[in-house]
Automatic annotation (TrEMBL):
Any Pfam family hit: Abhydrolase_2
Domain called Phospholipase/carboxylesterase/thioesterase: residue spans: 28-158
GO CC terms of this entry: cytoplasm
PANTHER family in UniProt: LYSOPHOSPHOLIPASE-RELATED, PHOSPHOLIPASE_CARBOXYLESTERASE SUPERFAMILY (AFU_ORTHOLOGUE AFUA_5G09340)
Gene Ontology molecular function terms on file: carboxylic ester hydrolase activity; palmitoyl-(protein) hydrolase activity
Protein's recorded name: Phospholipase/Carboxylesterase superfamily protein
Organism of this sequence: Plectosphaerella cucumerina
Family label: Belongs to the AB hydrolase superfamily. AB hydrolase 2 family.
């Protein structure tokens, strides 16, 4: 069916199991693309909703989504009974695992629940199935763990909807799906979201990898056809803090919005 501008009612079936905020372009009737924004480990959708409004991308509906699971209070330094009510600390993983080599949280805890929520329900069921859009109308922006999820979703789509989970090399692939573009700030591509077919083709979604470790950036280049790597003057991984840091992100969005798909 021909695409139409989404309405609040189109997203209602996603609630309450998925929490998100819609930031519409002005006027909403001129919506031509969608940007899904995914926060980092231990954060929520609220700060990135302000970020979406500040970007003010023309014709872009921004959807900032809350992580699928709350962080345990113990990881936040609280006893369960002392945790503040309504604490806004969430994550995207299926589990919270400690990497024995680093004694830090495993950056690849599995993302099946998040993939179902974002790719299957929000993108395929709602934007594509209900509103007639294509995945090529959708961009993803993620920070930290949210960036990993964004890259992983784009990676897992390359073999087509029916064979994302297939492990046999002789499986018949359907037409590859692509997003309009993906930006990841500091979030590496999870190996658990790379299709296991040995003869897999590279993902065609264009990627902007920001503040990523060199080895992580090289792995993204191995799995995606078109990757631009950006390093800021400072070393730490954080949201952009000035014009110089934000400029390559806005340039990437502009190029994708002007690309036609």
């Amino acid at each position: 069916m021909p695409p139409r501008v989404p309405t609040e009612a189109d997203f209602a079936p996603l609630r309450p199991s998925l929490t998100f905020t819609l930031t519409w372009p002005k006027p909403a009737e001129l919506t031509t693309s969608v940007l899904i924004i995914l926060h980092g480990l231990g954060d929520s959708e609220a700060p990135l909703t302000q970020f979406a409004a500040a970007m003010n991308l023309p014709g872009v509906l921004c959807i900032t989504v809350r992580g699928v699971s709350p962080l345990p209070s113990a990881l936040l330094g609280f006893d369960a009974e002392d945790a503040p009510p309504g604490a806004a600390h969430f994550h995207w993983g299926d589990d919270l695992k400690i990497d024995p080599s680093s004694e830090e949280l495993d950056p690849d805890p599995g993302f099946n629940a998040a993939r179902t929520a974002i790719l299957d329900r929000l993108v395929r069921d709602t934007l594509v199935g209900r509103c007639g859009w294509s995945t090529k109308d959708v961009m993803l922006f993620g920070f930290g763990q949210g960036g990993s999820l964004a890259l992983g979703l784009a990676s897992s789509m390359r073999l087509g909807k029916k064979v994302e989970e297939v492990t046999s090399d002789d499986a018949t692939a359907t037409e590859a799906e692509t997003f309009k573009g993906v930006v990841s700030i500091g979030g590496p591509l999870p190996r658990s979201m790379v299709p296991s077919l040995s003869a897999r083709r590279k993902a065609e979604t264009k990627v902007l990898a920001v503040q990523m470790e060199d080895d992580d950036a090289e792995f993204v280049k191995e799995e995606f056809e078109d990757v631009r790597v950006v390093k800021w003057k400072r070393k730490d991984v954080a949201m952009p803090q000035n014009r110089d840091e934000m400029l390559p992100i806005m340039q990437f969005f502009a190029s994708r919005l002007n690309s036609g798909w």
